[in-house]
Write a structure and sequence with these properties.
With 680 residues, the chain is mainly alpha-helical. Helices cover 39% and strands 9% of the residues. The protein has a two-stranded antiparallel sheet with strand order 1-2. Helix 3 runs antiparallel to helix 5, helix 6 packs across helix 7 and helix 7 packs antiparallel against helix 8. Pfam families: DUF4771.
Length: 680
């Protein structure tokens, strides 16, 4: 079969067609692999560009503010002053609404924040943030909602000008006294033999070129280069524990007696017929306000002697000051309105040791009572002298060692007279890294000190190859572990190659007490501050750098158009089973109320999505580098400052619906006469 299909019986056209199919399949496979790799490469590239855009925003809490929001923040100081005079936060609540906060703070919290931040609107917003979220603005979080971002960005906007002023003062260049060099006097030219020999110079016109002035040098920044430890983000608090289970409901005892068939038999009395409440046996543990107290009302005939209610009086307790080491002094006993009352004096702190000051006796109900007037304190016992057992013990040991002999009739310290350093032991050679102590038998009978000294010095010279002494590591140096040196962080604030944000991080941490905006987390990443610091170090941009910004902005715009085609930032309305199925006019009001809350939640999600997308696209316009108020107004015209201003597009026109309604109402009760045909 193989020869018949692919052998010499097959024609040339079939073999060529087969070869073409194999080549085509191989090329298509290569093209498919190439397109798959190209897709993955573009995906990684888009992800990298998107992450660079997110990084260029600045801190995670930074939110770009529109012109109306900035205007509201500018008027915040005056509104705080007026609202504190009137005692009602009306103007400030209106500004919070224009700022775009939702949900908004109530009037009580807002009034408390106004009073705490009456001297500074930044302090007022910081107090509002603390009251809303339970932590200060210093703490760094992994994520912030829209309200938190608006509050922190408002604090930054109010303190940005002052921060830039402080930075200008901090990075002001040192005054350098430059001596002007005297202009060199031109040498007198020799007189020409003829006036016709004078040189004529034709100047060539060159257009003037603007030279970029170099930035002034930075001052001495040694005080900024201190160790800097970055605080980790605050973790989210754990969820609160579940509430305890409710107590079990106890049925009243009379109800249980009725179920068990227990009856209360009372004697008959034929005096009068009165409806009296029978006394039911109840537990003493039952509270007075229990809802399960069921009292039975029975008609009894005759007089029933009710039991007297016994009121349990509380056990008398001596007055306490609330402190374990103090009590009241009793100055006397008096009778007020027929009641015996103790007269309490001042609070006396009980000393550790002392005796009672007796103030006399008072006869009360046939018993004599001591009058307590305080304590007479005694001096505390003296501290014992420090014990010298350690020193005495050491002396006893050395005395025993020096004065006691061994069984060989030698003292224990035999041969230890005087000091013998390690390197000067007689008849021994000094140990090295490769050899321990060695006994030199040749020096037993050779005790000439001069010869031994010369041999020792020559040996040291031979080992070290130098006349200088080198430590070979055999002598163990004991380190005092008690003295611990303070570990200094190896990472300094500026580092080796500092960037503009490194300069800002080191300088802004010294301004926390002056400006509350400097306490914001990651304040050194704000685009406006980074641009000011870059301009201070490197100077203004060149023409080439400006063209590069335009190119980057166009690339980012193409990326956002691609994301928009993939429904980036789109909020799809959630499906609710309430509005599916058959309904009638009976459910109209209920459905309208539910639809209002449903629509409001959707508008809130849409508002937050628009704020997120606009804040993401804002750094690609490079307004921190080239600010323009008109451009900010045009850009933020697509972002609504309040959620109430956000309008949903209806699929029909309200005016056309009203016209259709009136047109149908006119034709409803109009009867056309017979024989008249309509124009249709």
């Amino acid at each position: 079969m193989g020869q018949q299909k692919y052998g010499p019986e097959t024609s040339h056209e079939e073999r060529a067609n087969r070869r073409l199919q194999i080549v085509y399949a191989g090329k298509m496979r290569e093209r498919q692999i190439f397109m798959q790799e190209l897709k993955e490469y573009r995906k990684r590239k888009d992800k990298k560009v998107f992450n660079s855009v997110k990084t260029s925003i600045g801190p995670i809490w930074y939110q770009a503010l529109s012109v109306p929001q900035r205007t509201a923040l500018d008027a915040l100081e005056f509104s705080i002053y007026q609202d504190l005079l009137e005692g009602r936060p009306v103007r400030t609540a209106k500004l919070m609404r224009e700022l775009g906060l939702y949900p908004r703070p109530n009037h009580i919290d807002l009034m408390n924040c106004l009073y705490l931040g009456r001297n500074d609107p930044k302090e007022m917003l910081a107090q509002l943030f603390t009251m809303t979220y339970g932590h200060n603005i210093d703490g760094k979080r992994s994520s912030y909602n829209l309200n938190a971002r608006l509050m922190l960005s408002g604090i930054l906007y109010l303190g940005l000008k002052n921060l830039i002023t402080l930075l200008k003062e901090r990075f002001r260049p040192d005054k350098q006294e430059t001596q002007k060099q005297p202009k060199p006097k031109p040498k007198p030219e020799p007189p020409l033999a003829s006036p016709y020999l004078q040189k004529l110079i034709a100047p060539l016109y060159e257009p003037p070129q603007k030279k970029r002035p170099p930035p002034p040098p930075l001052p001495n920044l040694d005080d900024l280069n201190e160790p800097y430890e970055e605080e980790p983000p605050i973790p989210k608090p754990p969820p609160p524990p579940p509430p305890p289970p409710p107590p079990k409901k106890r049925l009243p005892r009379s109800y249980c007696d009725n179920l068990a068939g227990i009856m209360t038999i009372e004697p008959y009395s034929s005096v009068t017929t009165l409806a009296m409440k029978t006394v039911t046996r109840t537990s003493h543990r039952r509270k007075g306000g229990s809802k399960l107290c069921i009292t039975e009302v029975k008609k009894t005939y005759g007089m029933v002697c009710n039991r007297k209610k016994t009121v349990r009086r509380k056990k008398p307790v001596a007055p306490s000051t609330g402190m374990w080491n103090s009590q009241y002094t009793i100055n006397g006993v008096y009778q007020v309105l027929g009641k015996t009352v103790f007269v309490l004096g001042s609070v006396v702190t009980l000393p550790p040791m002392g005796e009672l000051i007796h103030g006399g006796y008072r006869l009360l109900n046939g018993e004599y009572i001591n009058i307590h007037c305080g304590f007479r304190a005694q001096p505390p016992p003296p501290k014992p002298d420090p014990c010298d057992c350690l020193k005495t013990w050491e002396e006893q040991i050395f005395k025993y060692v020096k004065g006691t002999k061994c069984y060989c009739e030698h003292f224990y310290d035999y041969g230890n007279e005087g000091t013998f350093p390690l390197e000067e032991l007689q008849f021994f050679q000094k140990p090295t890294k490769h050899m321990p102590f060695k006994f030199n038998y040749e020096t037993i009978y050779d005790i000439d000190p001069k010869r031994l000294h010369v041999e020792k010095e020559f040996k040291n010279l031979w080992e070290t190859e130098s006349l200088l002494r080198v430590d070979d590591g055999t002598v163990v140096v004991k380190k005092d572990n008690k003295k611990k040196k303070a570990k200094r962080s190896s990472t300094t604030c500026l580092g080796q190659n500092p960037k503009p944000e490194d300069y800002l991080k080191c300088a802004l941490r010294l301004m926390r007490r002056v400006n509350i905006a400097a306490r914001l987390p990651d304040i050194h990443l704000v685009p406006e501050l980074k641009e000011w610091m870059r301009r201070r170090i490197h100077g203004p941009y060149t023409v080439t750098q400006r063209a590069e910004f335009v190119r980057k902005s166009s690339v980012y715009w193409q990326m956002f158009q691609t994301l928009a085609s993939k429904d980036f930032g789109h909020v799809s309305p959630p499906k609710d089973p309430t509005y599916s199925g058959h309904t009638n006019w009976v459910h109209k009001h209920e459905l309208n109320e539910k639809f209002k809350s449903y629509t409001y939640k959707y508008r809130l999600a849409l508002f937050r999505s628009l704020a997120r997308v606009n804040n993401l696209m804002w750094p690609t316009m490079y307004q921190a580098q080239f600010p323009d108020k008109k451009f900010r107004e045009i850009y933020f015209s697509y972002l609504f400052g309040r959620i109430e201003d956000l309008q949903l597009m209806h699929p029909y026109s309200t005016r056309e619906t009203a016209e259709r309604k009136f047109r149908i109402a006119k034709k409803r009760y109009c009867c056309i006469p017979a024989g008249i045909e309509t124009e249709d």
